[in-house]
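INFO batch 0412 | record 1 of 1 | parsing
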Amino acid sequence: MPELPLFLKWFAGVLGVGSVFVWAMAGIRLRHRLPILEPTGGRPPDMHWLPLALTLTWVGLNLLTVFSAPVRAGDPPARHDILEMVQIQLVLLAGCGLPLLLQKTVPAREYGFHLQDPGGQASDGALGFLASVIPVVLFWLATVPWRTDENQHGLLRLLSEDRSIETLLLVVLLAAVLAPLVEELMYRVVLQTALEKLAHPREAMLVVAVIFSAMHQLPDAIPLFPLALILGYVYQQRRSYLTVVLIHMLFNGTNLLFMILTQELN
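INFO prediction complete | emitting C-alpha cells
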C-alpha cells in the first residue's frame, strides 16, 4: 500500500477520535440507564400501500440476485450503466416519496419529513456518522483476507479504471447523493416503519439492517451491518429522514474521498 499523506492520516485520526468520543458518551448514558438518543417520535404511522409495494418488489428482486450470487463478482459498470442507475434511483425516489408527501391521512412529519430543529438533526447526523466509523472499520478489517479486486464494489472499480471528471461526477451523484436519499427512504422510512407495525421496534430494526447489508453482497455486507444498525436506531428514536440521509451521505462521501485520494498516490 502507498504511504498516506499527512493530511489524510490526520483526517482518519480525527474521525477515529471522534468515534471513540461518541461511543464513550453512549457508554456513559447506558451506564446511567438512559437511552443513547432520547426518542422524539411517536407511534409508527400507517404506511401507504404504494411505497410499500414498490419497496417490497425492489427488495425482493434484488434479494433474488443476492441469493444467486452472494459474493460480488463480474465487471464494473460502464458509464452508461451509471446513467441508467441514476434514472432508476430517481424513479424509486419519486415512487416512494411522493405518495407519502402528498397523502392526506398521515402528516408527512410522522414519516420523518420535516425541518424542525435542523441544527439538531444535522448534529444527530454527524454524531451518527462518527459512531459508525470504529465498528465499520473493525468489521472491514475482519474481511480483508477475503477481499480481492474482483469483489470490490463496482463503482470503486470503475473509478480506478476511468478517472475522467464526468465519471467521477456521476459516481458522486449516484453514491453520495441519490443512494442515501433512496435507500433511507425505502429501508428506514418505508420498510422499517411498516415492520414496526407488525413486530417489536428492535426486531424491525434488526430485520431491516440484515436486509440492507445483504443487498450490498459480500464482502461489503459484513462491515455495512453495524452502519445499518446505527441508521435504524437513529431513525427509530428520532424519526428524522434528514438525519439518517445525512449519516448515509457522510459515510458514502467519506469512503469515496478516501478512495479517490489513495488512488492518486498510485
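INFO post-check: The two ends are 9 Å apart (CA to CA).
INFO record closed
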